[in-house]
Amino acid sequence: MIMFDRRLLQSFGWSLFLMTLAFTALSLMNLYSASYQTGLGYFKKQAMWVCIGIFAMIVVSFINNKLIKQYALYIYGFSLLLLLFVLVFGKEVSGSQSWITIGSFATIQPSELAKIPIILAIARFYDNDYEGVPYGLLDLIKPVLLTALPLGLVMLQPDLGTSLTMILISGSMILFMGVERKLIFLVLAVVIGFSYPAWHFFLKPYQKDRIKTFLEPSKDPLDSGYNAIQSRIAVGSGRLMGKGFMSGSQTQLRFIPAQQTDFAFSVLAEEWGFMGGFMALLLYFMIILWILDTASRAKDKFSVLTCFGIAAMYFWHVVVNVGMVIGLLPIAGVPLMLLSYGGSSTLTALIGIGIVLGIRMRKFPIQGPAVELR
Amino acid sequence: MQDFRNRLVIATVILGIAFLGLVSRLWFLQVLKGDEFEAFSRDNRIRIERVPASRGRILDRYGRELVVNRPSFDVYVLPKDASDVSALSVNLSRVLSEDPKKIEQKIKLASKKNRFKPVLLAQDIDRDQLAYIEARRSSLPGLTIEVNNLRQYPHGLLGASFLGYIGKVSEADLLATPELNSNGLVGKTGVEKTWEGSLRGQDGFLQKVTDALGREVNSNLFQKDLVNRQSVPGNDVVMSIDIDLQKAAEDVLGEEFGAIIAVNVRNGEVLALASKPSFDPADFVKGIDSKTWSKLINDKDFPLVSRATQGLYAPGSVFKMVPSAAAMKEGVIHPDTLVHCPGYYRLGSHVYRCWKKGGHGWMNMREAIVQSCDVYFYRLAEKLGIDRMSRYMNFFGFGSPTGIGIEERAGVAPSREWKLEKFKKPWYKGETIVSGIGQGYVSVTPLQIAMMTAAIANDGTLLTPNLVIKEVAFSGQTRMNILPPRGELPVGKDALALIRDAMTGVVNGPGGTGRGARIENISVAGKTGTAQVVSLDFQSSDKAHKDHAWFTSFAPSEAPEIAVTVLVEHGGKGGAVAAPLAKKIIETYFHLKKERKANDNV
């Protein structure tokens, strides 16, 4: 199952590995500052998950990606089962039934863990598929369905943030594989056509508030605008050099909401300033760039698309989360991969890197004829 | 296998653009707007607690306390920090014995207006209440107890009319003086108002770090950039008033309405300024309740109006010194020239009566003053004419404020121009005639009469009445308050000497109208006045139609020290009613002086 080959170790992606390790260290440090006042519970738990995640990352990197491709749909199926399980037996936290308790201390979030199975399933679909012409509406029934099944289950929890990232990841992959131009217009038309009834019938009041607040945060500075305003104050007041480790007033006096999880980047930006925020973004940028680079060297379509999917997963988490923290996007419950507290999110992020490392180790030139982009 | 390189390049470009966007925004927030957000984060974490300055005391001329402070423990809620209003209300209701719903409503209502303004829930709570609340304060965020000072009046109602009262800071007060504490109290009238700037001092503040729930944080982390400012206590104001003399003045007035003023004729210092009826300043210390307030302002006796400085009356015969001085200066009559008083004075078809029905017979100026002969002054007024008369009224300080520094009215020194403007009518000669005896349009405050008397006594200097000798800062630094005189009377010294002699005659001479003010060993000079409220022909036993009794005096007549003016509203004859009161004040003055001297020697 796992091939121990010297060549593999020689071509191991050390730079991605080290960048990832550096990021986990940064996240633990940041979490310590954000949570030490309430005890070391968060820190210890996250440290445990980071260790498990790094171990998983290394293990996954040594699994032959052919094997992964082979089992992709089983993994996907298992993930769907978990999503069903959580709907029946899950633990409800602040209105969403998203968590499964394991033992007495650990909880996992199947919706977070479902992201990679979706990527694998879609990659698997395209790998088998006929290539050459852009995809039309009927061709896309399968990948859309592969996304819609877990998406529907996640929406039932309901978990708007995770649903959103799932749509963004799958959408990116489908677009990456090329679709007919008229289909793009059709989708745009449908989205615009449905946004009105969605606003009136599907969105919950708190979700509407978030969007309204984003458009005009000062209108309601106490309730739904509070998070957006406090986060922006935290980030801005960090200025160029930051207030120093464990010295961010917004963080330490708990003005930042959800500062261990969704707003972890506010903590970083407040205590380490623009320098810290910029370095973190640069690190994300290099990690994603490195994953895309791996994609360009991968030997088969499944690997290319898997890499791209994982790059898209990182990309959207960073854009949506940081965009929310710095007031570019409305508040949505999307964690920041590798920085936010949370076992499932950390595990997903590290397993994703593990898959990319595995693909990297087996680098061979991409085969097959070149196809022009239309 | 497709070639994905182009697509990956496009993906990389999108990645680059997106990250450039995020970094630009980060730059904008942290570098371009960083200082602004740093200020916001400071505001977030720093709560400013006001440290009220203690208001300065008001002392009498010998340092005896007229107005002091006592601490009052007040319960406030800051809506911004009150996370659990209902728990707060229930807890407070137990100790304040008030309906919890009412408290909750009050907080919520105030919270809607301004979440950052503390709401006063209870004032001046007692020790037990304080202990109960202090014990629960840490578990009830938003609750604070402030120590404020409340005014206290050791002498009760004494001097209320010039001390004035304090009240809650109004919107108008805040506009005029932005540094006032919007929850505090401010001088509304009297010395409390005029000397507000000195009495108030400067509030200090303590900056405290609070967390998102409004709880105070004591960790050292954010303490270093806190700024605290000590409060500076207000200055003590030392008045010219002698509280013993003030007490004597208010006592002798008794239940009568009126005013008694005692002034040092050499420097204008006011030793006593009594006015009745008055009010209790203690009613105002916590901010007056609307019921008591409406009772006070709707009272037909106008207790909030100080008779001494704001009451306007016809001066009657105490005014006769003005035409006397004018006539001598203008040379319209020689003081020795005799004028016959048959008991009336005829001008055209109109007859003006003298108060003495049978008439006084032949009168020179001195006798006319001593016996207060009206006919003599009708004649004088006719000879002077209104233009000269009103000029001399102005010289004596009538028709304009004295400058005492508390609420006062200017009164009227009538002239042709004044009448034309006020009534759009020309001046009639008959109006000049009655002006000669201080009737008609002439209206004055008792304080103006006192200052006129002082000017006559000190040989011609019209002084500014001075209520405050000095202010003393907490540091001990003293600032004297010296008011320049208003002017010199343009009257000859011999004329003033004659008037003083005549006034001595009023009290001591045969036929003098003010013999009721006579004191053994001390020569008192004075002038009586009986100001008509209605025409002499009008017979009525109604108190409201009774004459005002005036008496103005100075003593000792040979080397004057003090001027005393008495007005008793609807008191009747000045000689009979007002003069004995002045006598008591003068006696008290010299008695106190002697006592003080004896004590000093010991």
Layout of secondary structure:
The complex is a heterodimer of chains A (374) and B (602).
Chain A lengths: L5 H5 L3 H22 L5 H21 L3 H25 L1 E3 L2 E7 L3 E3 L1 H4 L1 H14 L12 H16 L3 H17 L4 H22 L2 H11 L8 H14 L11 H4 L11 H34 L3 H25 L17 H19 L13
Antiparallel strand pairs in A: 1-2, 2-3
Helix pairs in contact in A: 2-3, 2-13, 3-15, 4-6, 4-7, 6-7, 6-8, 6-14, 7-8, 8-14, 11-13, 13-14, 13-15, 14-15
Chain B lengths: L4 H28 L1 H12 E6 L6 E2 L5 E13 L7 H12 L3 H14 L5 E4 L4 H10 L6 E10 L7 H4 L2 E3 L2 H6 L8 E3 L2 H5 L1 H5 L3 E6 L26 E4 L3 H11 L4 E7 L5 E7 L13 H9 L8 H4 L10 H10 L8 E3 L2 E4 L2 E4 L7 E3 L1 H6 L3 H22 L20 H8 L5 H7 L10 H12 L3 E2 L5 E5 L5 E3 L6 E2 L4 H16 L16 E7 L16 E8 L6 E7 L5 H28 L1
Parallel strand pairs in B: 2-9
Antiparallel strand pairs in B: 1-8, 2-3, 3-4, 3-5, 6-7, 9-17, 10-11, 10-22, 12-15, 13-14, 16-19, 17-18, 20-21, 21-22
Helix pairs in contact in B: 3-4, 10-20, 13-15, 15-17
Tell me what you see in this structure.
The complex is a heterodimer of chains A (374) and B (602). With 374 residues, chain A is mainly alpha-helical. Chain A contains 15 helices and 3 strands. Chain A has helices at 6-10, 14-35, 41-61, 65-89, 110-113, 115-128, 141-156, 160-176, 181-202, 205-215, 224-237, 249-252, 264-297, 301-325, 343-361, and strands spanning 91-93, 96-102, 106-108. In chain A, strands 1-2-3 form a 3-stranded antiparallel β-sheet. In chain A, α3 (41-61) packs parallel to α15 (343-361) and α6 (115-128) packs antiparallel against α14 (301-325). The longest helix of chain A has 34 residues, at 264-297. The two termini of chain A are 40 Å apart. With 602 residues, chain B is of the alpha+beta class. In chain B, β10 (258-264) and β11 form a beta hairpin. In chain B, α10 (243-253) packs antiparallel against α20, α13 packs across α15 (374-395) and α15 (374-395) crosses α17. Chain B is built from 20 helices and 22 strands. Chain B is elongated. Chain B starts with a helix and ends with a helix. The longest helix of chain B has 28 residues, at 5-32. Classes of the chains: A mainly alpha (374), B alpha+beta (602). At the A-B interface, α11, α12, α13 and α14 of A face α1 and α2 of B.
